[in-house]
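CO-FOLDING WORKSHEET

Operator: S.A.
Ligand of interest: zinc ion
Run index: 276
Mode: holo prediction, single chain
Checklist:
[x] sequence pasted
[x] SMILES validated
[ ] output reviewed
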Amino acid sequence: MLIGERVQYYLAKFFPTHRLTHEKGYRVAIFHSIESSHNFEEIIKFLRDHCTIIRPDTGIENHKGQAGECPLVISFDDGLLSQFTEGLEVLEKYGIKGLFFIPTKILFLKSPEEEMDFAVKNIHFEVPKNLREYRFMKPEMIKELHDLGHVIGSHSVNHVRFNGIDLETAVYELEESRRHLNQLLGEDVKFFAFPKGDRKSVDPGILPLVNKFYTYGFSAIRGWNNENTPRCFLHRDPINLYYPFDFIERILQGSLDWYFSIKNRYFLLGKNACNL
Ligand SMILES: [Zn+2]
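OUTPUT RECEIVED:
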């Protein structure tokens, strides 16, 4: 595990707090590369045993105001090929519909070299440790996911960080990626996830733009989503395939939510964060 993940692991282990399960709302898990379908299946089985996995589209609407045992959406970032080759069969086996966030530049990459270049410069900002992380899905695969009932969302065009960029660039990244996906899928895309998605990668002034183009915007900041969570910057919980099960269990129980709400207390300003 990375150092930051180790800190979270020990915090969750030694300061466990349980979120009351009768509270209304839902969580969203984020996956990146799926190195092995076997490993992914074990995690999906664990998630199914501890939570109710809900559909991204109708599920979020239904669970906003409904109590339940940890309703959970499964999301994927970056349009990585392994999500299609290793992840899809597991989702289909368990009847799960995922939410896939695509940086739409990948729709136009023509060769493995171009993919590698985009992965290094735009996705990882370094040479990826895992070779799987520099191959992306082809447009027809994204279309196939959509046709199977999975939900496709935008992850900007170029996987830019939305901090320190001018308004014009931010609008381009939001609007153009939506246009690319609408054209590919033949319907309106409603979901957006900020690349990187932490506090340092998003300028709060950009947040009100999100709901101009999308119904829902997502961060990568851990937490529980309820009616007071800003609809332009909903929480998501990164889950890596190498996480120990006791860590995943704590994440699902909300053991780290207090830590992230303190860390982001000046940033997450409630519902009003989305208003112009
Ligand atoms: Zn990303």
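REVIEW:
Residues 77-78, 155, 159, 195 surround zinc ion (CB under 6 Å).
The chain is about 40% helix and 10% strand.
[x] output reviewed
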